[in-house]
Design a protein that fits this description.
alpha+beta, Nuclear Transport Factor 2, Chain: A, 4-stranded antiparallel sheet, 2 helices, 37% helix, extended, Cystatin_sf, membrane, TseB-like_dom, transmembrane
């Protein structure tokens, strides 16, 4: 004897509802976890526009060197490429003309050629010992975590933490 068609539909519909609920919960959790960082990046961009005269924002990076910093990569009113370093917990903004130091691409090229990483995870500017510095986080070929801090103006390597 055959089962009626409706008895086959109930488990399928129930399974689809459960999958839909799980997917919606995942999207909600992901959105809640990303929201604070997006708000901080938007706030850093707004501060750079208001106090440093940035008119165009290309990107926003963040780093954590004893303190958290957001770096706004953009162009100011004078059409100069600048980085604006914004401390997360308040303090003075630091405006750096990109021509006065290494650009993000130059730092990344240096890391790729000298360290041959498997993957670069992050490269951003923060303040290290009172001066602007690039902090590059990357994985070695063996998958070990590495950090290198590089002086913005000279390109001198200030600190290396390797094979974590």
């Amino acid at each position: 004897m055959k089962k009626p068609r409706s008895s086959y539909r109930r488990p399928i519909i129930l399974t689809l509802v459960v999958v839909l609920v799980v997917m919606l919960a995942g999207v909600f959790i992901l959105n809640r976890s990303i929201a604070p960082n997006a708000r901080a990046e938007n706030q850093a961009s707004s501060l750079a526009k208001k106090y440093a005269g940035v008119t165009e924002v290309s990107d926003v990076y963040w780093t954590n060197l004893h303190k958290t910093y957001y770096t706004v990569d953009g162009v100011n009113k004078e059409k100069q490429a600048v980085y604006v370093v914004v401390p997360q917990k308040g303090g003075n903004l630091v405006v750096l003309k990109q021509k006065d130091g290494l650009t993000r691409n130059q730092v990344l090229q240096r890391i790729w050629s000298s360290r041959n990483p498997k993957k670069v995870l992050r490269a951003s500017i923060g303040i290290f010992n009172g001066k602007p510095a690039w902090v590059v986080t990357y994985l070695s070929q063996k998958g070990k975590l590495n950090y290198e801090t590089i002086r913005f103006t000279t390109g001198k390597s200030l600190q290396k933490i390797i094979n974590l």
